[in-house]
Fold each of these.
Amino acid sequence: MEIRSLQSLDYDILIPQINDWWGGRDMAGMLPELFFQHFKNTSLIAEEDDEITGFLIGFLSQDQSDEAYIHFVGVHPDYRKKDIGKTLYEKFFAKVKMADRKIIRSITSPVNKTSIAFHQKMGFVIERGDKTVDGVAVKANYDGFGIDRVLFKKELK
Amino acid sequence: MEIRSLQSLDYDILIPQINDWWGGRDMAGMLPELFFQHFKNTSLIAEEDDEITGFLIGFLSQDQSDEAYIHFVGVHPDYRKKDIGKTLYEKFFAKVKMADRKIIRSITSPVNKTSIAFHQKMGFVIERGDKTVDGVAVKANYDGFGIDRVLFKKELK
């Protein structure tokens, strides 16, 4: 597996297949081209034999000079359980550290238990929310009306 | 009319009404909370009598150190034709200039003739595209499959 920085041309390759990676869910809307034009230097592509097997879209917070944010991560369904997500996160942590930042934030859906467990394994803690869903603290309406989100925070050592 | 910086709490006020501003179109998906957490210092709110009458979501490009980008602008339907959009753009231009950047990019839909005329009036030029729709140069599939966009560029003097 190779990890490289995102390039603008990756957009045209990823967008047509991205909904399939999520079993048909409409995810392409979370990936407007702006991320492929303006946040390439903190976003990553995993590749194997010239095929994209995963990606991470992240950026350095413009407002909080000590923070970075992971917006969206995906792994090709045929390449799961191979630690591609873990490798992408670790590479992002290294980039954030190089930029002299210490806090990384990320969010997920409260129903996505795999993602919650993954973040906890990667050293994220769940932030205090304003309500509890399935025993997990969430911030209500975080990603739109009725769309609650689990908020994660990790402090780099 | 007052113009101020975006605040995180504006999210809870804007999100429930934003689709109505566009006559019921689903626009809330273009405004994930990340913009209200990490790009407040280049995003703007227009207010009148404590009511939000308009907003501009913009950021400084992380990759291109001379560029800024306008992601999303809205004006409350009851407050149109009052130059709120123009005022928000001018205030954003000033912020970009203060950050010592000279190029501003923005996009719109080829069917949105009002937006195209507005951008041209504000000094944007239409960038070369890869096809033509209704006599306007567009970049095909720019915001997803089949979603063409007109690309604008303005150079600050």
Amino acid sequence: MAKEIERKFLVKGDFKDEAFKATRITQGYLSSVPERTVRVRVKGDKGFITIKGIGNASGASRYEWEKEIPVEEVKELLLICEPGVIDKTRYLVKAGEFTFEVDEFYGDNEGLVMAEVELASVDEDFERPDWLGAEVTGDRRYYNSHLARHPYKEWAV
Amino acid sequence: MAKEIERKFLVKGDFKDEAFKATRITQGYLSSVPERTVRVRVKGDKGFITIKGIGNASGASRYEWEKEIPVEEVKELLLICEPGVIDKTRYLVKAGEFTFEVDEFYGDNEGLVMAEVELASVDEDFERPDWLGAEVTGDRRYYNSHLARHPYKEWAV
């Protein structure tokens, strides 16, 4: 089984000058149940369907299955998704040997910026850039599937 | 959008002598919500993922998206499906110009036999074989996604 080990952080400072790539992402959920999320996504000029299982106790490791599919099919599937589409730009930022994916959200999740880094194991060490804020790995409020239903703008401050 | 026009019936008599093909099917649901069911299926030696939208008022027409995927991937995905896997044999039976798919269920749905015919339009005429029983098109109790959660054996008689 494919497993992804990811740690997720809030972003507290400016990172854009260090980014080497930016891609617009629009995605919706056919299922946002944490035990079996089913996501369709347009990422730049490509389309994907991705299924994730529930995470382990720390939330860092989740079963993941993904297939590329035509963008036109994603657009059809978005029409039957749960209400609440996610719209964001994904920036890629190098820090030492690691590449962070930094997501800046729009729409009802405006104001939220999160960074993820993929690791070989849950306890692998990595360089922390200045703009990296509090860790939110495993906090389901920050799952995109949760943000689709309960956007950041509605959160109590 | 791909739409399937299907009418569904109970089966009340013997049809197996007329069948020209039989295939074992095992399937589970990543989402059994009628508005957006996500099904993974092993059918004979092939694997599929299928997404269906909600039907129209009569239940005969539903948006459908399907991709063939490796059987091994279906088996992985079955592990994270909702509880309640469907196990059945699908028989193909010719009646005039039409081919009926007749599903004989096992396990917790033992005793249930249903036939489906695909039509070009909701009101297209077709030949009714002797073994064709009451029509259940659009009755969500007979959706496989519903049978997975509420199997036939549990129904009040």
